[in-house]
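[job 4471] stage=fold_predict status=RUNNING
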Amino acid sequence: MGNYNFDAIIDRRGTDCLKWDSNGSPDIHPMWVADMDFAVAPQIQKAMEKRLSNPVYGYTFHGEGLINSIVSWVGRRYGWEISGEWLAFSPGVVPALSMSILALTNPGDRVLIMTPVYRPFYNSIRENGRVIIDNPLLKDENGRYSIDFDLLESQIDSRCKVMMMCNPHNPAGRVWTLEELQRLADIAKRHDLIVISDEIHADFIYSGHKHISIASLSEDMMQRTITAYAPSKTFNLAGLCQSYVVIPNKRLRDAFMGVYDALDLGSNIFGMTALTAAYNEAEDWLDELLSYLEANRDYAVNYIRENIPQIKVYPPDGTYLLWLDCSALGLEKEDLNRFFLEQAHVRMNAGYRFADRCGSFMRLNIGCPRSMLTEGLERIRTAVSNSKI
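[job 4471] inference complete, writing structure tokens
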């Protein structure tokens, strides 16, 4: 028995919670947006209460304590020794992606992404007037994804300036290996690409796998990479809007900060307080959480394989997201999404939002107490078994 109770049910309804209060019906069981249903670590709550007790919440800055906590965390958890001078900040990883695109490319430049991938990748490129190069990941018969390196390199031309990657990958759940990252690094060097690496799920790594930041591979990669992290997924702090980026190259960092300053983005004092407390005091909470989530993953995968064989699932290397192949149900895109909403009363993320070709996929969030996970899976099992599709 650990020190923390991840089986506790927290009622989030009525708190303007996106996950629970925006579903259109109280009957919907939400297993969609990447937001966990666990109480934050008590160390974080205590630090927030202490800061709240000082009744002035004025302008603030990124102080030495915050920076030192980040430097120490990245070194301990990811094995990458960074300097505090390399840090820049953002209200979230998604804004950091857009700021990076704006800072380092021009309208019409091409940006390579590996798909299916988190929807904001598309938006950060397309909505800022850049052009997407879609490199489809390969998928074997077991549902495991890999990179088609030959195709990827063939898609790069003189107009391609950036490769944007996701590690661990959302929604495929892959934790890229050293060998895979080295091949990407070699390609980036050959074609003089800037790499933007979204590593927001870097703390969710399961047994047998290891997170490696691509920037940490060599001096060359450090000088061409922007790496985005945040405590928001790890410690369930998304509402506090605090993330950071590591940019060793001063030219790239100055360009990023130019966009940041132009937007006049301030800092959330409570987000900074929570980040510092999480990284300095709540590591044991995370370690227990990882054990719980890995058990959730194994439970969900076994349940689906034994009780819902019409749905194919592969255990992810990392993240708390399952990528479900529902092609045997014979439904696509909104018809599939509607089936789960109306028949199972379960909300997941529709696969076509990650790639047009993934209309028969759904993404399921297992970051919740086991009883809530069981309820959602049983609803899906009943709907599929009762359907005539």
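[job 4471] summary: The CA atoms of residues 98 and 378 lie 39 Å apart.
[job 4471] exit 0
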